[in-house]
C-alpha cells in the first residue's frame, strides 16, 4: 500500500459503511428534532422493507430499477464519463418496450415478446445516448450538459407521443392501451415456490438485472474493450499515446451505458405497469448515480447498494404510514442524505483513514 492508498477492503467496504452510518446518524437527528424516536423509526423502516413477504417484494422491485441505472452510470464512470442522462435514456427505452409489446402481445406468449422488448429497450436507450456521446467525442461538448438536456427533450417527446399518437383510442389519459398476456412479464412468485410476495410486482426483470450485472463485470474486467475503457478513464492522455481511440471508447461506452439505462423500462413497462405512461421513471435515473458511487462502480457493490435504496423506498413508505409526523418529504430528505454522503461527501473519511493506515504500518512495510 503506497502513500495515499487504502486496502481494498477499506476502500470498497469500510468507507461506504461509514458514509452510510453518518447519513443515518444525521437522519436520526432530523427525526429527533420533529419529536419522534429514531430507533423506532429504524425498526419500522427495516420491518417495512424486509419484515414480511410483500415488503421484500417491493424492495426487490425497486432494487431492480436501481441495478439497471446504477450499472449504466458505473460503465460510464470507468471511462471517465459522467452520464446523468439515465432518466431520459430509460424514458426512451420505454418506447422500445411498448412498441414490441403492442405489436406482439396479441399473437405470441410473453417469452417470445420479451427478447424483442429487451432489445428494443436497449437499442432505444443506446440511441438516446449516442448523440451526447458523439458530441463529446467529436465536438468536445461536455457529456454532463448534453445528457441533462436530453432528459428534458425525452420528457417532452414522450408527452407528445402519448398525448397525440400512442394514446388509447377514446381515453383522456396520456397512456397506451394495456398489454395483453403476451406483453406481460410473469411475477417472480410464480417461479419461486413457497415464497409469497403479496401484491408486489417483482418480476423476471430482477433476474435480467442480475444477469446484466454479470455481463458488465465480464465486459469491463475480462475483455480488451473493458481494458481500453478503464485505461482511458484512468489516464486519457496515456491511453491515446498507447493507441486507444478516444472516439471509439467514448461512443461505445455511452452506447453500453444508455442501453443499460433503457433496459430499466422492462421492469416498469412490461413487468409492472403493463402499458406505457408518463413519469414512469420517477427519479430512478438520478438515484442510479448514488447507487454507482456507493457501490464503487462494481456490479457486486451496485447490487448491494440497489437493495439498500430499495429498502429506503419501501421502508420509507411504511414509515410515513406508521408515523404521520414523518411525512413522505421527510423520507426524501433521508434518501437525499444517503445520496449526499455517498456522493458529494464520499471522501470525508478518506484522509483520516489514509493517515491511520499509513502510520499503522510497520517500519519494514514503509521502507518497502
Automatic annotation (TrEMBL):
It comes from the Bacteria. GO terms for molecular function: transmembrane transporter activity. Keywords: Cell membrane, Membrane, Transmembrane, Transmembrane helix. The chain crosses the membrane at residues 12-35, 55-78, 90-108, 114-135, 142-162, 200-220, 250-269, 276-294, 300-319, 331-349. InterPro entries: ABC_transp_permease. One of its GO terms (cellular component) is plasma membrane. The keyword Cell membrane applies. It is a multi-pass membrane protein. It is found in: Cell membrane. The keyword DNA-binding does not apply. Pfam families: BPD_transp_2. This is ABC transporter permease. It comes from Roseibium aggregatum.
Amino acid at each position: 500500500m503506497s502513500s495515499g492508498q487504502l486496502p481494498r477492503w477499506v476502500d470498497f467496504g469500510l468507507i461506504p459503511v461509514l458514509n452510510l452510518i453518518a447519513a443515518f446518524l444525521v437522519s436520526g437527528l432530523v427525526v429527533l428534532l420533529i419529536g419522534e424516536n429514531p430507533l423506532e423509526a429504524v425498526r419500522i423502516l427495516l420491518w417495512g422493507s424486509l419484515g414480511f413477504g410483500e415488503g421484500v417484494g417491493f424492495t426487490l422491485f425497486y432494487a431492480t430499477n436501481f441495478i439497471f441505472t446504477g450499472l449504466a452510470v458505473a460503465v460510464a464512470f470507468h471511462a471517465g464519463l459522467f452520464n446523468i442522462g439515465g432518466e431520459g435514456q430509460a424514458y426512451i427505452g420505454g418506447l422500445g418496450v411498448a412498441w414490441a409489446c403492442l405489436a406482439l402481445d396479441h399473437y405470441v406468449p410473453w417469452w417470445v415478446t420479451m427478447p424483442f422488448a429487451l432489445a428494443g429497450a436497449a437499442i432505444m436507450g443506446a440511441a438516446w445516448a449516442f448523440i451526447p456521446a458523439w458530441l463529446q467525442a467529436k465536438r468536445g461538448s461536455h457529456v454532463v450538459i448534453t445528457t441533462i438536456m436530453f432528459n428534458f427533450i425525452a420528457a417532452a417527446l414522450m408527452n407528445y407521443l402519448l398525448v397525440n399518437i400512442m394514446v388509447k383510442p377514446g381515453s383522456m389519459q396520456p397512456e397506451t392501451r394495456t398489454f395483453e398476456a403476451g406483453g406481460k412479464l410473469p411475477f417472480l412468485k410464480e417461479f419461486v415456490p413457497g415464497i409469497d410476495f403479496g401484491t408486489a410486482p417483482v418480476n423476471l426483470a430482477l433476474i435480467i438485472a442480475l444477469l446484466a450485472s454479470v455481463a458488465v463485470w465480464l465486459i469491463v474486467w475480462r475483455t480488451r474493450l473493458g481494458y481500453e475503457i478503464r485505461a482511458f478513464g484512468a489516464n486519457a492522455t496515456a491511453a491515446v499515446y498507447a493507441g486507444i481511440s478516444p472516439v471509439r471508447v467514448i461512443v461505445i461506452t455511452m452506447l453500453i451505458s444508455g442501453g443499460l439505462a433503457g433496459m430499466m423500462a422492462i421492469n416498469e413497462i412490461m413487468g409492472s405497469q403493463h402499458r406505457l405512461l408518463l413519469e414512469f421513471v420517477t427519479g430512478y435515473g438520478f438515484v442510479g448515480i448514488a447507487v454507482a458511487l456507493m457501490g464503487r462502480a462494481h456490479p457486486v457493490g451496485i447490487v448491494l447498494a440497489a437493495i439498500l435504496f430499495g429498502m429506503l423506498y419501501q421502508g420509507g413508505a411504511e414509515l410515513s404510514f406508521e408515523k404521520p409526523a414523518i411525512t413522505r418529504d421527510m423520507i426524501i430528505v433521508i434518501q437525499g442524505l444517503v445520496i449526499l454522503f455517498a456522493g458529494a461527501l464520499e471522501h470525508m473519511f478518506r484522509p483520516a483513514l489514509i493517515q491511520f493506515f499509513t502510520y499503522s504500518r510497520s517500519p519494514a512495510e514503509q521502507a518497502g
